Amino acid sequence: MYRLVIQAPEVATQDLKQLARLSDAYEIQAITPQAFKLLGAHVDNDEAVADFCESNQLDYAFIPEDITVADIGLVVMDMDSTLITIECIDEIADMVGLKPQVAEITAAAMRGELDFRQSLTRRVALLAGLEFAALQRVYDERLRLMPGAERMLKGFQSAGARTLLISGGFTFFTDRLQTRLDLSRAIANVLEVADGKLTGQVNGDIVDATRKRDELMRYRDELGLARQQVVALGDGANDLPMLHEAGFGVACHAKPKVQAEAPYAINHVGLDGVLNYFL
Question: What GO molecular function annotation could you give as one example from this UniProt entry (predicted)?
Answer without folding.
Answer: L-phosphoserine phosphatase activity
